[in-house]
Amino acid sequence: MKSQPTICVRDPVGADTTRPSIARVYDYSLGGKDNYAVDRAAFDAVLEVAPGQGEVSRMNRRWLRRVVRYLAGSAEIDQFLDIGAGLPTVINTHQVAQQENRNARVVYVDNDPLCIAHGRALLEQNENTHYVCGDLLEDETLLENPDVADYLEPDRPIGLIVCGLLQHVADGLDPAGVMREYTRRLPAGSYVAATNFWDPADENPESHVLARQLEHAFTGLGLGTGWYRTREQQLEYFDGLELLTPGLAELEGWWPPGPPTRPQLPEERLVLGGLGYKPLPDPSRILPR
Length: 289
Ligand SMILES: C[S@@+](CC[C@H](N)C(=O)[O-])C[C@H]1O[C@@H](n2cnc3c(N)ncnc32)[C@H](O)[C@@H]1O
Fold this sequence. Notes:
alpha/beta; binds S-adenosylmethionine; Rossmann fold; 8 strands; 289 residues
């Protein structure tokens, strides 16, 4: 794992109004109010390329809600670690999980101080919900972070959520290697849920062009991160895990919420999501296929 201080210290965008932050740009894309002109300018550059990019963020939130409902309900996961949780928005992970199981424990983590402040004020609504400052890339993993370890039982399955996060981790920081280490340390029976921007490359040359344009708008024109990676690259995030049906899929095709009400936008087809399972030693465990 990387040995570097957490970005809470290294790169405290937080409430700095002169630089866009990932969390505030995402908040703006969702129609939130916790953002500044610099964030709006960064996302407006993206909207020039893909006017429906706000729909992409909302689609991502719908996927997150579906996967958490599945995990807390059908899969009976009762402890969650949601890394890169972002600013509070409408319907957050703990609300979905605790609707299924009111004793479900949720630990949110982000490296952005503004998320910590807002998250603690708005999301810590009960003794089973906590918002911790931490970085995905900390030494070892966040599973060993004392603030996280205080709330999660290390020997029981965990639902690890990394939605919309690895697309903001540069290649040089080895996002696949980071995820392999998390998977290695997670207890058997755990799940990993991830969504990320997708470059379909040869799978769809027309969409590939849009993905390249979007990546340039995110990384070159303002925010500085937001990489579109191929399916093969993203499959590496699930090394050591069994991907549940339908595998790594476009978000609206991953256990879709119901019949579509309109055709999908091209930009909405540039995100993949998957749910991986770390098998128990007991092969009699029935895994939905
Ligand atoms: C696009 S938002 C996604 C929010 C939420 N997970 C979702 O999918 O709706 C990404 C979040 O990851 C956080 N983040 C980025 N790099 C991180 C890192 N290395 N460690 C922890 N959080 C990080 C950002 O501050 C931001 O709040």
